[in-house]
Design a protein that fits this description.
Helix content: over 70%
Distance between the termini: 19 Å
Strand order of the largest sheet: 1-2
Largest sheet: 2 strands, antiparallel
Order of helices and strands: HEEH
Strand content: 5-15%
C-alpha cells in the first residue's frame, strides 16, 4: 500500500510541476505580447486606464508600465499555481485508477 501511495504522490508531484511549468511558459509568451502593446501605448512611462464604478460613473486613471508588468507577473504566478494543482489532482486520480485496474487484472 505504501508503494501505491508513493507512486500516486510522485505522479501528482510531476503533474504539479509539469502543469504549472507549462502554464507559466504559455502565459509568459502572452505577457510579452501584452507588454509590447502596452509599451507602444504608454506616454511618459504611464499607461492610461479607466473603468466604471458600481454606480455607473466612468473614471480615468494612469498606471506605470512597471506596475502593469508586476500585476501581469503576479496573475501569471497565481494562475500557474492553480493550473498546476488541478493537473496534480488529475494526474493523481489517473495514476491511482491505473494502479487499481492493474491490481484487478493481476488478481484474476
Amino acid at each position: 500500500m505504501v508503494s501505491v501511495a508513493k507512486c500516486v504522490g510522485i505522479m501528482a508531484g510531476a503533474g504539479l510541476i509539469g502543469g504549472a511549468g507549462a502554464s507559466y511558459y504559455m502565459q509568459s509568451k502572452v505577457n510579452k505580447l501584452a507588454m509590447k502593446e502596452v509599451s507602444s501605448h504608454a506616454k511618459n512611462g504611464m499607461v492610461p486606464i479607466g473603468g466604471m464604478t458600481k454606480d455607473g460613473k466612468l473614471w480615468d486613471g494612469q498606471m506605470s508600465v512597471d506596475d502593469f508588468k508586476k500585476q501581469l507577473d503576479k496573475k501569471s504566478q497565481i494562475s500557474s499555481l492553480i493550473t498546476g494543482v488541478i493537473a496534480a489532482i488529475g494526474t493523481g486520480i489517473v495514476s491511482g485508477l491505473t494502479l487499481l485496474l492493474r491490481g484487478k487484472v493481476k488478481a484474476k
